[in-house]
Amino acid sequence: MSIAAAHAQPPLTAGQKRLNIESFEFIWSTIRDQSWDPGFDTVRWTAVREELRPKMERASTMPQARAIMREMLDRLGKSHFAIIPADVYGDLDNPGEAGGSATAGLDVRVLDGHAIVSTVDDGSPAAAQGVRPGWEILGIEGVSLAPGLRRVAGQYAQSTTRELFLARSVLTKLSGAAGSKVRVEFLDAAGTSTAKQIERIEPPGPLAKFGYLPPMHVWFKSRKLRGDIEYITFNLFLDPARLMPEFGDAVHSCADCPGIIVDLRGNPGGLGIMAIGMAGWFIDTPDQRLGTMHTRQAPLKFTVNPRPPVYRGRLAILVDGCSASTSEIFAGGMKDLGRARVFGTRTAGAALPSAIDRLPNGDAFQHALADYISEGGRSLEGEGVIPDVEVKLTREALAAGRDPALDAAIEWIHARK
Amino acid sequence: MYLRYPLGPLAVFMALAWSPHVIAADEQLPKADRILDKFVEATGGKAAYEKVHNEKWTGSFEFVGKGIKGTATSYSAEPNKTVIIVELEGIGSMEDGTDGDTVWERSVLQGPRIKQGDERAHFLREAMLQAPLHWRKLYKQAETVGVENVGDQACYKVVLTPNEGKPETHYYDKKTALLVKVSMTMTTPNGEIPVENALSDYRGEFGLLQPHKVRSKVLGQEFLFTIDHAEYNVDIPKDRFDVPADVKALMAK
After folding, report:
1. In angstroms, what separates the C-alpha of B121 from chain A's closest C-alpha?
2. CA nearest A30 in B: which residue?
3. Cross-chain residue pair A209–B189, CB shorter than 8 Å
4. Which of A300, A303, A310, A354 to mutate to test binding with chain B, by most B CBs within 10 Å of its CB?
């Protein structure tokens, strides 16, 4: 937080300062009391409190206060610890205000240090402007992406979450209020630089709300590929009342198909229980587990409940470095059970089960409750799921309209016919 | 006739348990059967229980502090038929039920499932409409093991060993004779899960006192069931407790 930025924020009242200190203490004690890690160092954690509490007492703006709370969480070095500002919460009745989450209608992956358009939503403003997969994004709003990408890449150089944070660093800059426009400088497939003014629109799918998570758009798509393969993809494991039946219907619609492909690339996760429920449509043997969640007091098995009629054909799961959390639980578990073949690149390794509490200051606090060990005996945190078949995405393939991981999955399914 | 509700689906979300402080173990302890019979008297007496042939209650369910809430509806009929439906915002419907023999669970998340073994036995005990009257049939052993505080209430601690399943520890308020806490380990497909239920807000309806709030601690998370309205001897459709078609399909396999 720069001094200039801090000065732009209204100063906190005495009451707000007190609530921030209470929030700081809530976070600190929750982690002390609920850490699942048998090696959790309470002495070190107490020292963290003693170091940061005076800073918290001096914090004069909300961004400063949140930065100190985030610094405390960063000391843990784990995923699924976060502060979500109260103003991020949108009102379901006023979706346009939902945290400025409108998008340009495209997705991005950072490949070899370059931000590359990986998909363009049909009918989106980006599509209308002629933006194509394989184009490189050079800058946004006149600011070159390269220095920022280098910083993020350096910060996460040793982390499995590197790809996830690189993509997010670009997508965050593209997002904003619905109806606003973002100026994006591209390098097209022919190597020609071109600038586009793209209107931001609400992401596809209805808004879903779950607990203290901010409302999020959840979409689900399924279609037949080459006439005999069901392709299923969705952006989040949320809104189960809608998504679970849609997933089940898609599976059942292809009961006699040689294969089903579940594409979890870019899916950051959601409700862990949905992974177990979805697995039930593919596993016909009782007492099979995707993995085990280890809490401080007791292990909790992620046992799959078979849901007849169970699909018995080939199952391919597509993942990449932006597949996280519940996506990893599903992909890793199904791989370990030998029920699916996983294609793509290593996942984000951010798979700790977590809960979200409301803090006294109105913000929300996400905290991991447990470690998660896949059925193969590996912790997914910091490791991720390593695909059976590693298929890297390339700019050339995208520009040529190809999807190498999807192509590999289709080939595998047809080879096993 | 305790507050019955499904815990299986909840187990997926959480972590913990706590140990109440033992404040006295050397006083002369009453026998468990006296404590359990006194509970029946304190909540209305044998005659009042025997007047109840069925029950319907509506209420709410909440993941405490997590912003997740929903509605709950329970139907029960003698001797041991029950269906409980919880509709949770952002999750959907979860149903637990029994026709007195088959015990099932259904949800949009997990589909239908038939409960077996200890899990089935536990649900059938909970489903017994006049359970406090019949504890001698349901439990093979009951023993008072001490006095402990639950909050600021001194309670008799009674360990009940069911005919099938793991022992449960019940805490009865020394002053009121009411059951205020139950500690147990639930057997679920997800593993053995420690659960603590704190029962409170006893109120009288139809000559019976019943807890209107149950606060559960399950693996570090808290859940709150609240009864808003209870009715007895009401018209419940005869097929209300029939085994659902999707569960029957599982039985046929």
Report:
1. 19
2. B220
3. no
4. A300
Vertex B156 angle, CA B152 and B158, to 5°: 135
Q: What is the pTM of this model?
A: 0.86
Hey, which residues 220-249 in chain A have their CB within 8 Å of chain B? 238-241, 244-245
Any chain B CB within 8 A of the CB of A356? yes
Which candidate in B7, B10, B14 is best for mutational testing of the A interface (most A CBs within 10 A)?
B14
Q: Characterize the bridge pairing of strands A229-234 and A259-263.
A: parallel
Pair B135, B114: CB distance under 8 Å:
no
When CB atoms are compared, the residue of B11, B16, B91 closest to A297 is B16
Q: How far is A206 from chain B (nearest CA, A)?
A: 12
Structure tokens at A396: 């050339």
Using the beta-carbon criterion (under 8 Å), do A244 and B109 form an inter-chain contact? yes
Residue A286, CA distances (Å) to A84, A279, B191 in order: 39, 12, 14
Q: Tokens 């793991």 label which residue?
A: B166
State the virtual CA torsion across B45, B50, B53, B54 in degrees, nearest 10.
20
Q: Which amino acid is at B202?
A: Y
Contact B66 A211 (CB under 8 A): yes
Place of tokens 């470690």: A371
Task: Give strand ranges (E) for A35-135.
Answer: 82-84, 106-111, 114-120
Report chain A residues whose CB lies below 8 A from the CB of B193: 298, 300
- How does strand A341-344 pair with strand A314-319? parallel
**Beta carbons of A258 and A411 less than 8 angstroms apart:** no
Are B232 and B204 a contacting pair, CB within 8 Å? no
Nearest to A277 among B93, B109, B193 (CB): B109
CA-atom Rg of chain B in angstroms: 18
- Closest of A261, A252, A259 to residue A280, by C-alpha: A252
What ipTM was reported for this prediction? 0.85
| H/E run at residue B107 | strand B103-107
CA atoms within 13 A on the CB side of A173: 21
Is B189 in Cβ contact with A303 (below 8 Å)?
Answer: yes
Q: What are the pLDDT tens digits along chain A (417 aa)? A: 333 344 467 888 999 999 999 999 999 999 998 887 777 888 999 999 999 999 999 999 999 999 999 999 989 887 778 887 776 543 323 333 334 789 999 999 999 999 999 999 999 999 999 999 999 999 999 999 999 999 888 878 888 888 998 998 899 899 999 999 999 999 999 999 999 999 999 999 999 988 888 889 999 999 999 999 999 999 999 999 999 999 999 999 999 999 999 999 999 999 999 999 999 999 999 999 999 988 877 889 999 999 999 999 999 999 999 999 999 999 999 999 999 999 999 999 988 877 778 899 988 888 888 888 988 888 888 899 999 999 999 999 999 999 999 999 999 999 965
Neighbours of B67 (CB within 10 A): 19
